Amino acid sequence: MTLLYSGTDKQKDVWFCVTAIRKSKESCPECKAVEEIIIENAFVKAFNILCTDNKTVVEEFLKNVEEGLQAKDNKKQINKLNTEINSTEIKISKLIDLHLEDKVDKITYEEKYGQLSKTLKELKAERVELDTVQDEEKTIKDRLTDFKKIFEDAKPLEEFDGDVFKTVVEEVVIGGYNEDGIPDPNMLTFIFKTGLNTKIDGHKPLSKMKKNTASQKCTYQEDKPR
Q1: In the predicted model, is pLDDT for residue 134 greater than 50?
Q2: Checking DSSP bridges between strand 11-15 and strand 183-192, what pairing results, if any?
Q3: Which site from 21, 51, 184, 205 is most exposed, i.e. has the minimal number of CB atoms within 10 Å?
Q4: Which pairing describes strands 218-220 and 11-15: parallel, antiparallel, or unpaired?
Q5: Residue 138 structural domain
Q6: Range of lowest pLDDT (2-11, 44-53, 92-101)
Q7: Is residue 183 assigned to a domain?
Q8: d(CA 123, CA 139)
Q9: Measuring CA to CA, how many Å separate 89 from each of 81, 95, 101, 114?
Q10: What confidence tier does 218 reach under pLDDT thresholds 50, 70, 90?
Q11: How many CA atoms lie within 13 A of 173 on its CB side?
């Protein structure tokens, strides 16, 4: 979003609450526009927190996620389901042939056909669920690979790097609540594609941010990595 300051020809790129834009300012009364340069400077701080002060935490997190993904064997389950689906479809086909050849009466045919059709429907539904899970896990693995490559080779950023930002950040949440539960429109939360997130005070200049790096922590968002 570009904000044009009234009475001047100067423009500044800003980030603003999507809810407030789509609905109204009343939908998010505490929100305010944040200059993009503030987001960029805050990202430098957030990324450096991961690469320096919380490096051990991040490494342990990545290791745990990888081990968790390796422990799952959805591919074997999907192959088993495919075999069962194929077997059920063959049974249905044979049943139809028997009925057409008058080797199975109508009542028996309809009863068995109904049972097999129900089984086939349930098996296919289960396969769809597993396919979805497998796709999600592949996405997570790809994101972990990209994140690890950036993270393992990275040195603390001296300035904003757009390529790094696009690779590791899923979204940026503008605003939040401080420890006392008071709305803080200057709070910036960087949610990384691995599920880790870091909160930064967007009101502080980058020079002041650097002095307080040791006090910052990264946390993990419990819902699935993005």
Answers
A1: yes
A2: unpaired
A3: 205
A4: unpaired
A5: 72-149
A6: 2-11
A7: yes
A8: 24
A9: 12, 10, 19, 13
A10: very low
A11: 13
Q: Which two tokens stand for residue 166?
A: 């696009």
> Is 164 domain-assigned?
yes
Adjacent-strand bridge partners of 196: 220
Do residues 80 and 141 both lie within one domain? yes
Residue 99 CB contacts under 8 Å (≥ 6 apart), including other chains: 106, 109
Q: Would you place residue 220 in the very low, low, confident or very high pLDDT band (cuts 50, 70, 90)?
A: very low
Report the 3 state secondary structure along the chain: CEEECCCCCCEEEEECCHHHHHCCHHHCCCCCCEEHHHHHHHHHHHHHHHHCCCHHHHHHHHHHHHHHHHHCCHHHHHHHHHHHHHHHHHHHHHHHHHHHCCCCCHHHHHHHHHHHHHHHHHHHHHHHHHHHHHHHHHHHHHHHHHHHHHHHHCCCCCCCCHHHHHHHEEEEEEEEECCCCCEEEEEEEEEECCCEEEEEECCCCHHHHHHCHHHCCEEECCCCCC
pLDDT in tens, 86-129: 999 999 999 999 999 999 999 999 999 999 999 999 999 999 99
d(CA 62, CA 74): 20
Instruction: Output the pLDDT for position 155.
Output: 72
C-alpha 37 chain-centroid distance: 25
- Domain match, 167 and 140 both: no
Q: Which two tokens stand for residue 203?
A: 């009101």
